[in-house]
Amino acid sequence: MPRIDELDPPPAVESHQPVPADGNTNTGPRPATTPVDVAQRCDRCHRVLNDESLCTGCTSCDRCADSIRIVDTTETLTGETVCLSCRASWYWQCGTCDGWNPDGRDCADGCCAPVGCVCDDCLDQLEPDRDTQIYQYSFKPAPQFHGAGPLFLGLELELETPYGDQRSCVTRANRRLGRLGYLKRDESINCGFELVTHPMAYQWAIERFPWTLLTELRELGCRAEDNVGIHVHVSRAGFDSPCHVYRWMKLVYRNESQVTTLARRSSPRWAAFDDDDRRAVKDYAKGAYGRRYTAINTSNVATFELRVFASSVDPGEVQAALAFAAASVEYTRDLTAHDILRGGWSWASFAGWVAAQPQFAPLTQQLEALSCVS
Known about the structure:
two-stranded antiparallel sheet
């Protein structure tokens, strides 16, 4: 399996020898590097500096003191900058605010303990609101996995409901979901809820999710407006390696136009395709954490979150969102450097592969309906 660094096509090699800018073609020995030159290079990445020992792109871990690139660090809630290795060994992430804290200490943001807290607020979160039967946004039950892994998908479907008849929609959704999912609040929703499922294998979801529920909710007045979307959580454990993560993210980011066409929206506010994230794909693949409101949210410990899709109460469109998440992971699983050099990251190659996989028929149907096959 090639290293991440080997996946980008190699630069073209010129057939002639380069001529220095000063026109001097002398190929004799170059002057020896002076001690000043050596002292002016970054300890970590060896870039030329003025006086500092580290450049602006590098820093040192406050716990182990190793020199490290800033993109490979995490700022903790107690003000420390730590490397990914120290973070994994000595810190825990709060499930309420997503901040990192030293092991054995309470959350520095004042959040309650992750397990066993008996304050009134935490006890209230264990039950949905008595009037609306919708959980608070911070409600995060232990995941219940459905189907055979290792790849699992978690669906988050944001919907607006009628102002005068939300209860009917909530009651119907809760009854049909059963233990497969729950409803919770979200800041982007004016009057409605976010339908959240426990992790599901793709084929299990296609066969077992109550898809007719979406039609029933539409008939009750639920709407998919511009302010709401579909988010699909993709389990990190479903990837073979950091190289696999890298290939998957590159496929998504290199095909922004086609992805947003399939997603039926472009959303710089909630699901941005950002140049900084494109450049950081290699770091994300190795475990670095990024921002939340991007096309691929990399800030979660156990999942990557595809945030690109517009909301919908059309079963085919929601199935296509799940199918894209699963198909893109599977397509890039065995993609080789040779495949990539021959256009493996192109949308046409991906769409052609999907068309030959009958299990991803919902995605093929949407690609054809949206004229998005190349």
